[in-house]
């Protein structure tokens, strides 16, 4: 019943995307810096509290519980079609995958013999191709071994490929509903780049889709219509062509966002000390 009450309270615009009538609700609070929201088809949201070195699990209508202690600076998270959890560990500088039994597998930690900078955000395509960003913020920049920031692809056989070496630091990452376009936010350049993806997961045709974002962009979510939700000074909503459609203002600066809930129709937003939720009458792009 408690879960139903949460969904009902958020579901005012039920028959189409609505930017004139919605409510933003705080559904979890008391953290230091929340990041990496990802929805599990098992019916819960995971998110990271990076400074406190924890991953939390939130089931709508229930109190959040610790999902993983000592998370090695977990930041971005994502689930695949098999329900496995992918996590970017900023402190160990690696990308891991955790299966339903809790078995952890390291997917990426070095490029050409050198340790990654600090994997930040991650997305998994329906067919299993994985993409993640590898910037370096704060103290991470002083200890890095690579002389560039990277966007990477992990293929179906576990091979690691370099997608791009941007001048600025890549951050949030997302996919179009059909999985044929990769989106990467660049915090320094304040833009979002797009890349075409083929069936083998290879990227081409790099271009700037969104420029001049108000504030350094962080996480990205994509809805079923292909609209992009970009966390920066506010949460900005852009069309697939890069046109600004709406600005969602919150009490705190957002860091990332992800669609979830029983119908995939709630946008969960991590924002500093809290997690927020909003219903906009549109569902997220199903990636698994």
Structural write-up:
There is one protein chain. With 288 residues, the protein is mainly beta. It has one domain (2-279): TolB, C-terminal domain (Neuraminidase, 6 Propeller), CATH 2.120.10. The chain is 3% helix and 45% strand. The chain has one helix at 2-10, and strands at 24-29, 34-40, 44-49, 54-58, 65-68, 74-79, 85-89, 94-98, 104-108, 110-111, 114-115, 122-124, 130-134, 150-154, 160-164, 170-175, 181-186, 191-197, 203-210, 220-222, 228-231, 235-238, 244-248, 256-260, 266-271, 274-279. The strands form seven sheets. A four-stranded antiparallel β-sheet has the order 1-26-25-24, with no helix packed on it. It has a four-stranded antiparallel β-sheet with strand order 2-3-4-5, with no helix packed on it. Residues 1-15 have low confidence and may be disordered.
Write the layout of secondary structure elements.
Layout: H1 2-10, E1 24-29, E2 34-40, E3 44-49, E4 54-58, E5 65-68, E6 74-79, E7 85-89, E8 94-98, E9 104-108, E10 110-111, E11 114-115, E12 122-124, E13 130-134, E14 150-154, E15 160-164, E16 170-175, E17 181-186, E18 191-197, E19 203-210, E20 220-222, E21 228-231, E22 235-238, E23 244-248, E24 256-260, E25 266-271, E26 274-279
Antiparallel strand pairs: 1-26, 2-3, 3-4, 4-5, 6-7, 7-8, 8-9, 10-11, 12-13, 13-14, 14-15, 16-17, 17-18, 18-19, 20-21, 21-22, 22-23, 24-25, 25-26
Short description:
This protein is mainly beta and 288 residues long. The protein has 1 helix and 26 strands. It has a single domain (2-279), classed as Neuraminidase.
